[in-house]
């Protein structure tokens, strides 16, 4: 399996599963796939964070807001792997409840990854809403 195939398999399983869990109110899997090695950062659709402590806090706060995820799709536009670094660019389309109100949202998301001890980890995320689907 090539590095690109290995990375894409990880995205399609661990990353997608972690995002679905977050949108269902469980931040645990998302915390697991994020790097514990600085620097890490999020310029998010809902919250920003710089450093692991802020990141964990942001994930915990978001998990309290989300529930009842019924759909999550990641539509990759582009991705690449260069050595122990990778990136992905695409759209995330999902239906979840935010503070108990069902919502369907589309985000543009760009993420940067680093391979650490043979495992892919997220190190940066930038996401924003698209059109009428603003968070």
What integer value in Å does the Rg equal?
14 Å
Shape: globular
Can you tell me the residue ranges where pLDDT is under 50 for at least 5 consecutive residues? none
How many helices? 3
CATH topology: Nuclear Transport Factor 2, Chain: A
Helix content: 25-40%
Strand content: over 45%
Largest sheet: 6 strands, mixed
CATH architect. name:
Roll
Count of distinct structural domains? 1
Question: What is the strand tally?
Answer: 6
Whole-number mean pLDDT: 95
Give the helix/strand class: alpha+beta
- Sequence of secondary-structure elements: HHEEHEEEE
Widest β-sheet, arrangement of strands = 2-1-6-5-4-3
Q: What is the level 1 CATH name?
A: Alpha Beta
Cα(first) to Cα(last) distance is 38 Å
Can you describe what's shown?
It is a single chain. With 135 residues, this protein is α+β, with helices and mostly antiparallel strands. It has one domain (3-133): Nuclear Transport Factor 2, Chain: A (Roll). Helix content is 30%, strand content 47%. It contains three helices and six strands, in the order H-H-E-E-H-E-E-E-E. It has helices at residues 3-23, 28-33, 52-65, and strands at residues 41-43, 48-50, 66-82, 85-98, 101-116, 119-129. Strands 2-1-6-5-4-3 form a six-stranded mixed beta sheet, with helices on one face. The protein is globular and about 40 Å long. The mean pLDDT is 95.
Question: Which labels suit this protein?
Answer:
135 residues; alpha+beta; Nuclear Transport Factor 2, Chain: A; six-stranded mixed sheet; 3 helices; 30% helix; 47% strand
């Amino acid at each position: 399996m090539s590095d690109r195939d290995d990375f894409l398999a990880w995205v399609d399983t661990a990353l997608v599963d972690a995002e679905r869990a977050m949108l269902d109110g469980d931040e645990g899997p998302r915390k697991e796939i994020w790097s514990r090695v600085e620097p890490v950062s999020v310029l998010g659709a809902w919250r920003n964070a710089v450093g692991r402590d802020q990141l964990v806090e942001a994930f915990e706060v978001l998990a309290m807001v989300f529930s009842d995820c019924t759909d999550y799709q990641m539509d990759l536009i582009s991705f690449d792997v260069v050595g122990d670094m990778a990136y992905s660019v695409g759209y995330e389309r999902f239906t979840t409840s935010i503070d108990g109100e069902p919502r369907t949202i589309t985000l543009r998301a760009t993420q940067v990854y680093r391979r650490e001890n043979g495992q892919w980890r997220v190190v940066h995320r930038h996401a924003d809403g698209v059109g009428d689907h603003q968070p």
